[in-house]
Every structure is written in structure tokens, then in C-alpha cells.
Amino acid sequence: MTTRAEPGDDQSDPGLSAIMSERRRLINLAYRLLGSLADAEDVVQETYARWYAMSAGEQQAIESPGAWLVTVASRICLNLLGSARVRRESYVGDWIPEPLPEPAEWVTGRSGVGGIDLADRVTLDESVTMAFLVVLDSMTPAERVAFVLHDVFRYPFGEVAEIVGRTPAACRQLASSARRRIRTAQSPAAGPSGGQAGIVRQFKTAWEAKDIDALIGLLDPEATATADGGGLAVTHLEPIVGGEQIARAYAEIARVSGDRTTFLECTVNGVPGLVARQDGDIATVFAFEIAGDRIRHIWAVRNPEKLRPWRIS
Predict the structure, then answer these.
(1) Are 266 and 105 within 8 A, CB to CB?
(2) Helix 157-164 vs helix 65-87: crossing angle, to nearest 10
(3) Which of these ranges, 8-17, 94-103, 265-274, has the smallest mean pLDDT?
(4) pLDDT at 313 over 90
(5) Are 128 and 287 in contact (CB under 8 A)?
(6) What is the mean pLDDT of residues 149-175?
């Protein structure tokens, strides 16, 4: 899990100190809370806008600018999480968290080509795997904020309570409830990353060969495949349930796409995944949850708005 970072010691210029030492932490926090890099960037921008809206005297009166920024960003996220549930009622198909590439593959240079600045990269660990984020998304907004702040970023419940607007005891209960959700959804140990990469590689090979039997052998009999096109890309609107059903559906996808699509191995949210390029452009990012030696879940993100970090402008 991510350990709690302390604010910079240089308080001579609180605004500069906050910019230099807190931005990355805020991006990491907001992405875990919202599951969207675009929304996380908006939250951080709004947080700094509120900081700079204060006078120099008001800024200097704040004992810990870092703590102030985290509190404001967390509260903005809490409000967004509440409204997100309403927005998703009109979302076309399933909503999947925004996938992130390996740091070396990020598009860099906010002021040059598009993409995200080096200092804003999200730290990839077990708290940002697609499986983990999907469970986080099933929580109530208060559960998610309390759990992420305490269990991931190591904030004491007293500070969490001030952010969430509840008592420390209530926040402790929220985090406990969130942990139960995670334990219930957790897969058996997936094994080392190298083993997972091997399974994903075998899946890629079988998929390219349209080998239904081989695909079935790599999928858990009760596997699920979920896709997110957001109404902006063609995909199946309902999850495909069952290893054989997924194998046949994906073999058909390979048949229809033909030579226009190539599949590349990559890292998605810190674990082995695949990218589909169609006519040279990234069309889909696939994240996998592997239990033992079988694929338990596939998440296929096709919404082009969620593939921004993967594209070179």
C-alpha cells in the first residue's frame, strides 16, 4: 500500500511548497478515489485554485498547507463520488475505471504534446489494480474515502473524520465495511507477475489464432468479461459470463477485426495486460484478474476518452 507522505518542511513560501511537494500525492489520492485520471486532474486543479484564491495572509495562517490541500481535494472527491452515481445512470453500458500504462509508456510534457506531466504520474501498486478499483467503485462514497485515506494513505481516523464529516468511530466502521467488501471480492493468489504475464501471453496467442479450446482452457469456467465503450465505441453492453461464452465471443471479435488489429503485451495499472491497436491507433486496453492459473475477469476499455494517457498526440 502507499505510505503516507509528509508535507515539505519549507514553510517560507507555503504556496510554492504545496506545489512542489503535494501535487503528486493529490493526483495519487484523487485517482484512487475517483478511478479517473481526467477527474483527478480536475480535482487537483480546483484544489489549487481554492488555495490561490486566498490572500497571502490566509495562506500563511495555515499551519500545514499539505494537510489543507488533502482535506480540500478529498472533500471535492467526496462530492464528485455522490454525483457520479447519478451520472452513471445515463452512462451507456458498464463504467470501468480509467486504465493506466506503465510509467515509461506515459505521454509526457503537459506544456508540449498532450498527456500528463512526469510529476503527476500515479504510483502503480496493488491499490490501483483494475480489480481493486472496481471493488472501490462498489463502495459508498464515504466508505471509499475513509478506506483510501486510512488504509492506503495511512491517515489516522481523527483526521479522516474531519474530512468526511463524521466521528472517528463512524469512519472506523466505514473502513471496516470497505475491507469486508474487498475480502469478499478478492481472488485467490494470482502468483508472481511473471506467471501472470505468461497466462496473458498464452491468451493473446490463442486469441490471435482464434483457438476457442485454448481460450476456454485459460479462462475460469465462471469468468466474466466487461467492456466500456461509453457509447463512443462499439462493444458488448452487458458483461459476458462464462469461460466458454467469452472464448467464443472473443474468437468472433478476432475474426471480424482480421488483420486490422494487432495485440501487444503491456502493463495495465501495474499488472500484465494487453493493448489492441487498430489501423495503428490504440482502440482497446485490456486488464485481467487472474486467480491461480486461470483468468477470472477481463475488463476491456474502449471509451476513447479513457485512453488519453495511452495515445501519443
Answers:
(1) yes
(2) 50
(3) 8-17
(4) no
(5) no
(6) 96
Longest CA span, the chain? 69
Neighbours of 112 (CB within 10 A): 10
Q: What is the CA radius of gyration of the chain?
A: 21
Cα separation, 186 vs 136, in Å, equals: 12
CB atoms within 10 A of CB 275: 21
CB-side exposure of 262: number of CA atoms within 13 Å? 6
Give the residues across from 287 on adjacent strands: 273, 299
Contact 149, 161 (CB under 8 A): no
Closest by CA position to 31, among listed 44, 18, 49:
44
Q: How many C-beta neighbours within 10 Å does residue 131 have?
A: 23
Cell 498547507 belongs to which residue?
Answer: 65
Q: Would you say residue 18 has pLDDT above 70?
A: no
Give the lowest-confidence range in 68-82, 115-129, 233-247, 259-273: 115-129
Residue 166 CA to residue 313 CA, distance in Å, equals 44
Report pTM.
0.87
Query: DSSP 3-state assignment of 42?
Result: helix
Q: How far apart (Å, rounded) are the C-alpha atoms in residues 103 and 114?
A: 15
Return all residues near 199 (Cβ < 8 A) that are at least 6 apart.
Answer: 218, 272, 288, 290, 293, 294, 295
With CA atoms as reference, report the closest residue to 187 among 265, 122, 242, 130: 130
Find, among 160, 42, 165, 141, the residue nearest to 83 by Cα: 141
259: helix, strand or coil: helix
Cα gap 105→98, rounded to integer Å: 15
294-303, pLDDT tens digit by residue?
999 999 999 9
Exposure on the CB side of residue 199, measured as CA atoms within 13 A: 25
CA angle (206, 244, 261) in 5-degree steps: 40
Residue 209, Cβ neighbours under 10 Å: how many? 12
